[in-house]
Each structure stands twice: as C-alpha cells, then as structure tokens.
From TrEMBL:
One annotated GO biological process: transmembrane transport
Phylogenetic lineage: Bacteria, Pseudomonadati, Bacteroidota, Flavobacteriia, Flavobacteriales
GO CC annotations, alphabetized: outer membrane
InterPro entries in the record: OMP/PagP_B-barrel, OMPW
Signal peptide span: 1-21
A Pfam family the protein falls into: OmpW
Name of this chain's protein: Outer membrane protein
Superkingdom field: Bacteria
Keyword annotations from UniProtKB, A to Z: Signal
PANTHER family, per database record: OUTER MEMBRANE PROTEIN W, PTHR36920
Length: 216
C-alpha cells in the first residue's frame, strides 16, 4: 500500500506539471465553496519503540467514509478541512512477552491543508500541505491490558489529488494523503505482566480516497 501511495503521488504530480505547462488562461468566475464525499483506505505505516519488553506495533487498515469542505480564495488557491474517523485494531508484536492483543482504538484526525489547483481543463490536479490534530477515543484495551492510554497528537500532512469535472458543478475525485502522526502510549498491564509499559508509536498513515464532489 505504501508503494501504491507513492506511485499515485508521483502520477498526480506529473499530471499537475503537464497541466501547468499548457498555460491556459484563468477564469475569474470561480466557485468559492467545494464539498467532497470520499471512500478512503487508511493504511498505517507504523513503527514503535516499546519500553522494557521491546517489540513493535501492528495497526490494522481501515475503510471509512471521509467528508471535506474547501474554500477558494481565487481559482487556484484554497484551504480544505478534512473530516473522518476510523477504528483500528492494535497489537504489540515480537515483544519479550510475545504478541500482545491491545484491542482497538478510534482515531479522529481533523486535517487542514492549503492547496494549489492547476486549472485549465476538465482534469484539475492539486497539491496540498497542512496540519492535523488527532484525538484518540473509544479505547478497547483487549484481553491483556488493564488500561491503554493514547496521547493526542499534532502533526503534518501532505496531499495530492485530481478532480475530473463532469460539468461545471459536479466532479469525480482521487486523493492521496500522508499524515505524519505519532503518539505516546501507556499500557497498564499490571494484572498480566506486573508492570506499566510506555511506548512511542509512529502511525504515519497513507490515506487513499475516491469520491464525488460539488462546487457551490
């Protein structure tokens, strides 16, 4: 999935450069608001530094809907607020105590990106960068731990995408994002291991989405 995300980002960047090279005149009559609904695949590119027992983290892929709102300052520049939430199964693997099922957790990572859109035809590529703030909630600690606590996280985001205009109002969309997301995790495993274990976990998900949008 990571290789697929990198390939898609490269294709989108190449398309953007091609469209920009066409030197098409801009249109001053543009829609200021844009809304998209996507189905997304959230694939963590996880790694972890686990105290005392060592090992690594394994975090499941999730398939969820995503909604975003964009505001355009002009035909090319916009800001986009991305809203989605996903549930992931979590496991500590290859530790000194073996593989440990840590249940599941919900992630809510609202992400704000600034974007540049390469206009001039029905194909409208864009590139973006911004920040995300991730909240963790709905923790199910699993059968081993007494409690699992995840710290909220502030991180960066990169984005590339392509809109294909069906008409002046409706369009199809493909979008690739990479969130640079990490959290400090505290696992209370007193009952099973007689200790509380801390871990620095990098989640760094790739998010690949397909959907439909409308300009207003």
């Amino acid at each position: 999935m990571r290789k697929l995300g990198i390939c898609l980002m490269m294709v989108l960047l190449g398309t953007a450069n091609f469209v920009l090279a066409q030197d098409q005149p801009s249109n001053d009559d543009f829609s200021k608001w844009q809304f998209r609904l996507r189905g997304i695949v959230v694939t963590p590119d996880e790694s972890a530094d686990i105290e005392a027992i060592g090992g690594d983290a394994s975090i499941s892929t999730a398939f969820v809907p995503e909604f975003d709102i964009s505001y355009f300052f002009d035909e090319n520049w916009s800001v986009e607020l991305i809203l989605a939430t996903a549930k992931h199964d979590v496991e500590a693997v290859e530790t000194a105590a073996g593989d440990i099922d840590l249940g599941s957790v919900w992630l809510l990572p609202p992400t704000l990106t600034g974007q540049y859109h390469f206009t001039g035809g029905d194909f409208v590529p864009y590139l973006g960068a911004g920040v995300n703030f991730t909240l963790f909630y709905g923790v199910d600690e699993g059968p081993v731990a007494d409690d699992v606590d995840y710290d909220s996280s502030l991180g960066f985001a990169l984005q590339g995408g392509l809109d294909y205009m069906l008409n002046d109002k409706w369009f199809l969309n493909i979008d690739v994002k990479r969130l640079f997301l990490s959290t400090d995790v505290t696992v209370d495993a007193t009952s099973a291991l007689g200790a509380t274990v801390g871990a620095d976990v990098d989640i760094d998900p790739w998010i690949i989405g397909f959907g439909v949008g409308v300009k207003l």
